Amino acid sequence: PPPPNCSREQRALIQAILKAYERHQIPHDVAKKLLHDQYSVEENFLLLTEMATNQVQVLVEFTKNIPGFLSLDHEDQIALLKGSAVEAMFLRSAQVFSSKTPAGHTEVLEDRIRKSGISEEFIIPMFNFYKSIGGLHMNPEEQALLTAITILTPDRPYVKDQSKLCTLHHPHEPQYFARLLGRLTELRSLNHYHTEIISSWRVSDHKFTPLLCEIWDVQ
Ligand SMILES: O=C(NC1CCCCC1)[C@H]([C@@H]1CCCCO1)n1c(-c2ccc(Cl)cc2)nc2cc(F)c(Cl)cc21
Question: Which protein residue has the closest C-alpha to ligand 1 atom 28?
Answer without folding.
Answer: 93
